[in-house]
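Blackboard transcription, Thursday session:
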Amino acid sequence: MSKSPEIPPSEITPEETFLNRRFFMKSAIWAGTTVATTGLYRTFSPRADVENTGTAIASTADPSVTSHLLPDEKLNTFEEIAGYNNFYEFSTDKSEVAAKAKNFVTNPWSVEVTGLVQKPRTFNLEEILKFESEERTYRFRCVEGWSMVIPWVGFPLAKLLSLVEPMSGATHVAFTSYHDLKQMPDSVFAGIDLPYVEGLRLDEAMHPLTLLATGLYGKTLPNQNGAPVRLVVPWKYGFKSIKSVVKIELTDKEPPTTWNLANAREYGFYSNVNPTVDHPRWSQARERRIGEGGTRETLMFNGYADQVASLYAGMDLRKNF
Amino acid sequence: MTFISDSRFHRQLLLVNGLLPAVFIVFDHWRGELGANPVEFVTRATGVLALIFMVLTLLVTPLRKLFGWNWLLKQRRLIGLYAFFYGVAHLLTYIAGDRDWQLLSVPDDVLKRPFIAVGMISFLLMVPLAATSTNAMIKKMGGKRWNQLHRLTYLIAIGGVVHYYMIVKSDITYPLAFAIAVGLLLAYRLAVQIRKVA
Ligand code: HEM
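(Written on the board underneath:)
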C-alpha cells in the first residue's frame, strides 16, 4: 500500500480493517469454491433414493422355479433392484432412472395384442392385473456384465397368448415399449431408436419360464423397473426383457429388435446368456453380482439350461448369438 | 498483495478442491452410499476426473494467452499431478474391482478389450510426465526438451477421449463433450503454430 499524499488520510484503509476484509474475502472464496466443487460432484453422481411404494399383489410362490438358486445365492435388496436400472427412455445413467421415472403415468394403461391371432384384443391394466400371479425368483444377467436375483411377481406370457389364440402361421412375437417425449424428455440422449422394440421366437415366448411381470417383492412394479407390465426372459441378457409394454404382435418373421438395430455386430436377436461367447468389447465368462464383492462365473443360459437348452438344439450359438 | 498474485492461496484452493472428489468417494464408500455397483461407480468417477484434470491442464496456456491470466501457470503442475493421481486411482480400481487383483489376467484383458488398451497407453504416457514434474527434473532436462516431452499431454487427452467413446453403448453425449473440449484446445495450439509460421 502506498501512502501517496494525494489520498486523504480518512480514505486510507486502516491496517486492521484491511486484514479483516482480506480474511473475509478469503473465507468467501474458500466457501464458494468448495461448495461449487461439492455441488458439481453431487450433481454428476446422483444417488438413487428409492422406496417400495407399490400396492400389494396377491401371488402364489411356485417352488419348482424358485428352488433353482445355488446355496450361496441370495435375493438382491429392493434398493438395489429399484435403484440401478437400464431404462434409456428416462436416463442412460442407471442411478438416475428412479428419480427421472418418478412421475411416469402408468394408469390408465393398455396393452394391444394383435397380428396373427384369432382374437386380437386390448387388455387394460385391470385385466392385466387379473391374471393369477405367481412369485418367481429369477437371476437377471445384464449384457454389461452385472447381475441380480429378483423376486418378480407375474404370470406366464403363454397364458395371455393362449387367450388371443395365435394362428398356425405365427412364428414370432414382437413387443413395443411405451415412448413419449413429454414424459421421457431425456430419451433424446438415449442414442437408440425409440420406441424400444424386442422380439422372441414363438416357442421362446410360450416357454413356461417367460413371464409378464407386474410386480416385484410382492408389490406392483416401480416405474423404473418397467411399470406397469414388462417382459422377463431369465435366460437371455436383460435388454431382451422389454419394459412398460404397450403392444404385443404375433408375426411370421423375426421382428426387429432395438439393440440389434443399433449395433448388429454386438447384439444378436437371440442374446441368450452364454459365458462362452464374448461380447466384442468384453468377456461374458464372469459377472459381478450386485451386492457382492468379487465376480462369479456366468452360467450357461443363466443357469436355466436344463429347461431351455432344447429350444436351441442343433443351432450354432456362436452364429446365433 | 492481491489475490491474483497470491499463488500460495491458489495452491491451497486447488489442493483442497482437487482432493474433494476423492474424499467424497472414500466417505461414501465408508458409509455404504456408492450405489448398487460401487466398482463401476468408482471406475467411472476416477476415469472422468483424470480426464477433467487433463483438459484443465490444456486450458492453462489458452487462458494465459487470451486473458493474460499468467498466475495460472504456477498451478499447472498440480493440476497435471491430479490427473495422474486420479489415473492411478482409476487403474487401482480396475485392478482391484475388475480383475480381482489377478495381475496376470491384465495383459490378456488388454489384448481382448481394445478400450482397455487405449486407456493403458494413455496412462503409461502419464508416467514420464509425472516423473519429470519436479523443478530438479526441469532443470536437468532443460526447458526445451521438457516442453517437448510434455507435449505428450495432447496424446493422453486424445487417448482418454477415445477410450471413453469406445466404452459407451449408445449415449455419446459426454464423450462428445470432452471431444469438443479437447478438439478446441488442440485447435487453438494449431492455430498459434500456423500464425507463427505464416
Ligand atoms: C490405466 C489404464 C486404464 C484402464 C485399465 C482403464 C479402464 C477403464 C474401465 C474398466 C472403465 C469402465 C468402463 C465401464 O464402466 O463400462 C473406464 C472408464 C473410463 N476411463 Fe479408463 N482406464 C484406463 C486409463 C484411463 C485414462 C488414462 C483416462 C483419462 C485420461 C481414462 C478415462 C476414463 C473415462 C473418462 C471413463 C468413462 C467413465 C464413464 O463411463 O463415465 N481411463 N476405464
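Lecturer's comment: The two ends of chain A are 76 Å apart (CA to CA).
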